[in-house]
Hints:
Layout: H1 2-12, E1 34-36, H2 53-56, E2 71-73, E3 78-80, H3 93-103, E4 117-119, H4 132-140, E5 152-155, E6 176-180, E7 193-195, E8 215-219, H5 229-238, E9 243-245, E10 259-262, E11 265-268, E12 276-282, H6 291-297, E13 301-305, E14 324-325, H7 334-339, H8 343-361, H9 364-379, H10 387-391, E15 414-420, H11 424-434, E16 440-447, E17 467-471, E18 491-496, H12 504-516, E19 522-523, E20 526-532, E21 537-541, E22 550-551, E23 555-559, H13 561-568, H14 574-581, H15 585-597, E24 602-604, H16 626-642, E25 653-654
Parallel strand pairs: 1-3, 2-4, 5-6, 6-7, 8-9, 8-12, 12-13, 13-14, 15-16, 15-18, 16-17, 19-24, 24-25
Antiparallel strand pairs: 10-11, 18-23, 19-23, 20-21, 20-22
Keywords: Disulfide bond, Endoplasmic reticulum, Glycoprotein, Glycosyltransferase, Golgi apparatus, Manganese, Membrane, Metal-binding, Signal-anchor, Transferase, Transmembrane, Transmembrane helix
Membrane topology: Single-pass type II membrane protein
Pfam families: Exostosin_GT47, Glyco_transf_64
Amino acid sequence: xxxxxxxxxxxxxxxxxxxxxxxxxxxxxxxxxxxxxxxxxxxxxxxxxxxxxxxxxxxxxxxxxxxxxxxxxxxxxxxxxxxxxxxxxxxxxxxxxxxxxxxxxxxxxxxxxxxxxxxxxxxxxxxxxxxxxxxxxxxxxxxxxxxxxxxxxxxxxxxxxxxxxxxxxxxxxxxxxxxxxxxxxxxxxxxxxxxxxxxxxxxxxxxxxxxxxxxxxxxxxxxxxxxxxxxxxxxxxxxxxxxxxxxxxxxxxxxxxxxxxxxxxxxxxxxxxxxxxxxxxxxxxxxxxxxxxxxxxxxxxxxxxxxxxxxxxxxxxxxxxxxxxxxxxxxxxxxxxxxxxxxxxxxxxxxxxxxxxxxxxxxxxxxxxxxxxxxxxxxxxxxxxxxxxxxxxxxxxxxxxxxxxxxxxxxxxxxxxxxxxxxxxxxxxxxxxxxxxxxxxxxxxxxxxxxxxxxxxxxxxxxxxxxxxxxxxxxxxxxxxxxxxxxxxxxxxxxxxxxxxxxxxxxxxxxxxxxxxxxxxxxxxxxxxxxxxxxxxxxxxxxxxxxxxxxxxxxxxxxxxxxxxxxxxxxxxxxxxxxxxxxxxxxxxxxxxxxxxxxxxxxxxxxxxxxxxxxxxxxxxxxxxxxxxxxxxxxxxxxxxxxxxxxxxxxxxxxxxxxxxxxxxxxxxxxxxxxx
Length: 676
């Protein structure tokens, strides 16, 4: 952290102590000091639509206090134009809550010289309340503005008639925008932050847990695009028992947002949303709608009909687990599409919806805190939280037993553990290939033959990496997973003595992938388990499919912790069964890891052709045709011992970047990657 500190000293002079700066308070926003803007002060530079994190954000402002994002809030003022008129209206409650949340958060600093992010105290949430050029002039007058660098502008209602732009029209230079209703055409990925439109109506929502959801889908917006009105009326005519279309109460009070009407019938809003399973969120003049949070608060699954809308915090939140997305041209197919969603899927979406809303969207404070957490991940990428952190409730996600950072350290490399019996020629060829892998730390040969001693040291390959031979007392497959003291690295490469087809690049790449997923099995040969309806049992399948649920440990990386777990904490008599039948130790390890982590293994590279336990070879263990039958028996026996099926299926494969592209080889890191 020397470089950021030096930058602070160079740019701002000696950093002033925190105690010299008085934290601001928001006790009386009705008695704020005033500041007259000079008539000669020009507006800020136009908003730079091509800004990225790397071109418009100064990361050297950050890190003065270690891995902590520090946010400075400018003291609130009333800015006056040359005629003495305020350039903005009184601060809204929502913006007050944003500032108050920052000031009372762990991110706040009263010292602007140590701040990474600057938040102006000018209320820009609703563009309808702003005098655009005057607000831009006020921003430029801020002492640390510097063309908007590292400044964060909050906005929830952008654009104005007739264009209704999807980003605030105030010129803000290089400032980041945390805004609602951004389009995929105007959103600057990795720079801006997409927000929801906060709805104060949810504060009056009375949750009715006993309320039956009698409607499949409901439309309750009073400001959606008129082009969809005819489509909704057609749906109502075709499916009168499935959809309820609510509108404003023109005969009662059309300006009252807390009620909706159908003919003469009046419904309280947003309480009525609790009687529907799905709620339509249709784009209006502005892309984002407050109806999204209304629906989530009422436990109604959002159906998003806004093709280019950037969903709130879409960088980290997986909205496919919470909402249904329908193209605008497919509006008339909505009922058919929603009826195809299973009851189980609906229950899962409702549960995820409730958790997501309570964690990120239930108040302006939560929205503000989430915004700053997203920024923290950007500024300090080595501390980035993973998908599980952002999208899985703690009671669902199984915590990793490994106390490792997001990416495991590379310094010590990995230990290759080779299980062998008597095939010296193949073993020596494998050792000579493995020592070419840059990250290899040590080779550990597990000699599983008690009737014949390993060859003398003079016969072993002369290699530049430590080589250790351990002779076991019994010929057991489980010996490959024993927690030997000689394994000093976090990573273990478990490999059979006949796996000669892997290149040094492929092994090194697999190790790099394991470093990003250190709690999983990462390897090459993959398999899948399937349910066989004809036998009402699980079936082991080695056919080439896109789905995998197991990675065979004949060539796979795993953390050495799993060796201890396999040896000391394997449920039931699984380990004894494996040793007795000389089969399925790899399946047992996959069961163990999946049961503890709840995660699927990861296959790397396209290679599928292996000399493996399923291949017909007179030298190999699996020449017996009963071998595949035993593998199926293993899966069913292990699942009965666990009392469940812990294996997780996934359609995922990790490949090196550019390895298939026509690109100069000297610019690629991994060139020697096989195709099949």
